[in-house]
Amino acid sequence: MLTGFLILLTCQLLGEFIVVGLGLPVPGPVAGMLILLIGLMIYGEVPMALRLPAEGLIRYLALLFIPAGVGLMLHLQILRHEWLVVAASLIGSTAVTLVVTALVLKLMTRPTDTHAE
């Protein structure tokens, strides 16, 4: 289990180094997740040493929403004044996400012509 946490933290640390070193406008943990994804794609499967801690973290994923809820309550006055901007950005970003996901799915499921003449 310790090995799995070490892998996760190493990927996050490498992501932070890359983001800070290259000055990328991306959070370090996101870059670390990409590093982890590439490593898992090369390896071909999720090793058991990584599977156990990852499943343990996912089990408590709902706890990560508590800080966001507290932030909403702390900044309720701002949200009351800016609700239209917040609502528009939420709806707009959801629409863009759906369109991009649909386009990627369409691209990825395009039938290939295997019987070239």
UniProtKB/TrEMBL annotation:
InterPro entries, per database record: LrgA/CidA
Membrane topology: Multi-pass membrane protein
Keyword annotations from UniProtKB, A to Z: Cell membrane, Membrane, Transmembrane, Transmembrane helix
Location in the cell: Cell membrane
Record-annotated membrane-spanning stretches: 31-50, 57-78, 84-105
Keyword Cytoplasm among UniProt keywords: no
GO terms for cellular component: plasma membrane
Chief location of this protein within or outside the cell: membrane
PANTHER family, A to Z: HOLIN-LIKE PROTEIN CIDA, HOLIN-LIKE PROTEIN CIDA-RELATED
Protein name, per record: CidA/LrgA family protein
Source organism: Salinispirillum sp. LH 10-3-1
